[in-house]
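Anyone? Bumping this.
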Amino acid sequence: MANLTNREMPEGFVEIQMALLDAIERADRTSAQAMLRTWAAAHGPERLLAEVIEPVLAWIGEGWRRHESFTIAQGYIAAKVIEDALDQIITPSQLRSSENATGRPAVIGNIEGDFHSLGRRMVGIFLRANGWNVHDLGNDVPGSLFVETALQTGARVIGVSAMTLTTAHEIRKLRSEIDNRKLAGRLKLAVGGAVFVVCPDIVDQVGGDGTAASALHAPRLFDVLWEASVSAARPAGLSAAQGVLL
Amino acid sequence: MRVVIVSSMLHMRPDRLAAQLHSLVSRERRDGRRVVLAFGDCCSAMSSLENLGGVTRTSGTNCCEILLGRDIYRRLSHQGAFFICPEWAVRWRTMFETELGLDTKVAKAFMQELHRKIVYLDTGVVPEPTAAVNDCADYCGLPVERLPVSLDTLHSAIEDAISRLTPAGVQA
């Protein structure tokens, strides 16, 4: 298993952050949950995301970006630690009051024919941690359902996942659905999955508006695409961002 | 027809799988032979390989879909199936623990979140490694189903791929 802690720590990393990183490295969800609960009781759950979880995830995310070796288990545990905190420690009102909470709706799902749900689930968790109101449509989702749900929920960003090139090409149908309904300015398409990490060129081929290096970087991508959508809706001069790679 | 078998463990290292397939395909084409890749969409190099003249690939995203056909694969996937094939079954512990970094506690949570059952695809070609299949299911905390699978669908997929073969040197 990759050693997450055997590196120079960022300046200012404190004991709780080191301990959380260590628990994730050991894939020890129970210890992570217990230490976060104790810390939240002493310092307040409102501070948990900003002062403990986010710095640790940022550190892990940088490692992902640098293509360091992380196991599936470590990625899974990192996501579950956040999910545990969101479900059991931080209340919805505390989450809404945190400084990065947006309450913006987002629609995510695996494209038609794709059943590799781990990455999508992790994206959903990291979006929630950043205050997004996530509508997760699950696996094998037809393009029309993505668009209908986005329109019903007020989402401006659709996040679609595909693991392989074959299923990634199915995203073209979703792109066509958006374009044919003349929603290209309004609805932005974030694409992700293993194939996009290996071959970023495929983002353009399938009509994606942007992709992210990992699930951890998805919230930033969604922020950028949301702003692009809002800009596109403005009367003049502000163009939408295209081909975002975060 | 010559059959060349590539280690299935290379699926865990897609870049190495791509390199080996490139090497094999290059050699075969250099010798004037055409190539059917009996593979799913197993690495990012597949599309460039199958677009070479005299090279084609079986249709399907992975070997389970190629064995079962799209409809059955899709129906079982919707039921939460985690498919295991004979060769994979005997290596399950290496896959989970060494490759994915899981232990039994994390594996149970991980697998039960993503899947509802393990489906062993019994092609009848080799005896089922029953103990390994049961151990894997216990490790994941999931029920196991045995599904007898005819080789007819795989045969059709290979025949279809052969029918799409272009002459060597002609782009697909």
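Late reply, but here is one note on the structure posted above: Chain A has two domains: 15-97, 105-245.
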